[in-house]
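Review form for a predicted model. The reviewer records the input and the model, then writes brief findings.
Reviewer: anonymous (R2)
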Amino acid sequence: MARRKPATTTHPAIAGVALLALTLSGSGASRVGAQDPGATKYLLPDLSAAGDVRSVEDVLDMSMDMTVSVEGQESAAKFSQRSREAYTETIVAVDAEGAPTMVKRAYTVAREAETPPMGKTVVRVSSLQGKTVTIRIAGDQVAVTADKGMLAPEDVKELQGKFGKNAEPEFIPQRELALGEEWVLDGAALGSALKGLEKGGIRGKLERIFPKHGHSLAEVRFNMQLHGTPEGAPLPLTMKGAGTGIYDLTLKRERDMQFSGPVTTEGEIEENGHKLKLKGEGKMNASTKVQWLKVAGKPVPPVAR
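Model under review:
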């Protein structure tokens, strides 16, 4: 159990909102400012063990007010997207270093709804919804199978990208941190998680250590400014905002995360032979809620979950 598990919680996303794989930790982080060598230091591990069981809910909401210009004529439109996943995840097996090699997920909800600027709302229910899937990880090879029924290739591909060597980079330095210590990850270090949003970066800070229900928790705060054209998006995006991550130092595992901030876009696309100029401003809210049911097979008391 000496190694952090691969990032396995990602917000479903369009337009690069593969956004903040804020399953926080990281290798590309650089220190900001001098630190007191005598200060108490904390390590924020995110360990895995066979028998770990957690329930997870991921929610992403994004809405934008758009201005659409066609041949000099302007009109107002709205864009919105909401996605939600809820599942129970069980670590079945890990390797000698503690990295998961087999994981089961039982999905109760996996769906998204999108309203494009010039269209009607489209609701898509993922083929994962209502299914239990087994993920087997061997280096950069990730296999996904369902207990029953068929899985859509796009859903399999998205899930494969959350495990093993394909997983997005982590966002918190794996070194001891002092209270108030800050670090910066530039966009280039986040490339695989935020494809196309390589300009800018994320600043993290160990904000406080506090007790709750007999556990010691750490709060990490993030400030972000990123710009670029996300993979699969027709227009560039600028994203700014702040987020908070909670880590359980007693369980040595991650807990909840929330993030919110403004999103802007501006550019030109072609549709049905016409050039459309688009400009939009809006807001994004994302959250991950985690309840630990078991750690290494041992039940976690309900009050401490």
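Findings: The CA atoms of residues 1 and 98 lie 4 Å apart.
Further findings: The longest strand covers residues 73-94.
Recommendation: see findings above.
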